[in-house]
Amino acid sequence: LPEKVTLQLSDGTTKDAPVTWTSTTYDKNTPGTYEFVGAYDLPTGVTGDKVGITMNVVLKDLTAPDVTITSVKGMKDIIVRKGTKLESIYLPKMVILNLSDGTTKVVPVTWTSNDYNKDKPGMYKVIGSYDLPVGVTGNKVDAVINIVVKDKNNKPKDKYPKKYKNTGNHGKKVEKEVKEIPVPETPVAEDTPKAAKTVNTISYVKGYPDGTFKPQKNISRAEAATMFAKLLTLDAIPDLDMNAKDVEKGAWYEDPIAYLTSKGFIKGYEDGSIQPNTDITRGEFAQMLSKFLKPVDTKTPFKDADNHWAAEAIRIAYGNGIIKGYEDGSFKPDQKITRAEAVTMLNRAFNKYIEMEKLNQLAAEKALTTFTDVPEDFWAYKEILVAANKI
After folding, report:
1. Distances from the Cα of 264 to the Cαs of 232, 257, 261, 289, in angstroms?
2. Backbone CA torsion sign across 115, 116, 118, 121
3. How far is CA 254 from the centre of its chain?
4. pTM of the prediction?
């Protein structure tokens, strides 16, 4: 309640006077309208009767019913071959919680298993640990994924042949013997006596010579392909030939585009072009990523994605926790993607991650590549540094 009131005086002037408020009926536990009466002293030089002042206070019950978790969105079993280490299995970084008010929440999750045995065929449960979202109360519901270990003798026919064939868009076949690098669930190199090579040991994007990153700059289809291929192959992209009318032989982007085309991650256009220098849209980027992600059975909240040509890809990316959309409930699939948005999605997809405390420590020790136009309070500060550094 105001500490002062302004009095209108008969000579046309005003004076402020301290005021105290009282109410004989106010009950903090009962919603309703309560009248408060103000008491004040006449200012010096003012005579006559006081004018009464009152103020109404409306007390409302803003208590909402408790929102609890009813279930965790079901996740499909993961089938792996005997000998597959738990840490090399791609597990979703997000789970979808179904809430009692009919809404859903997507939350980060970490997975553990007490009995997983890579050398023994069978079914093993991994349990997800997550924090209750803000505004949600009650008990957590278990997040569970079954991992099925199958004997190597039952493995399917190799889907990645040693010989790469690219018919291009002109019917001309190009064959080249290459050392094939299969697309892993989570990229992990062969075991070594010391440490395994993972996505955290590579950087897949660089800044500009002037020390900037240009986080709001759009990226081309060639740049997007290069980032993605570096992560898929742990920065060991095979030397391949690409037969498309607008992909020059020996161009810096030829190998990444050829590799992704051979794996079905990207396609050309009907006119036989790839359009490597054309900026890629958010929908096209989601389409490329969706080929790497696991299928999910979920809907998106994006009002502009349901009837879009990339609707299925956007749904898969959303269900895997890779995309979040905008505050207005849209995804903007036809909007050009920025460098900051691209590395954020890629980091989530490949689980390229570091604790903020460790990141700050490395930055303080000047052990990181940083950028003059990416301050610490920039929304994608962490994601950009993770993408640009071997951490």
Report:
1. 13, 10, 5, 11
2. positive
3. 29
4. 0.52
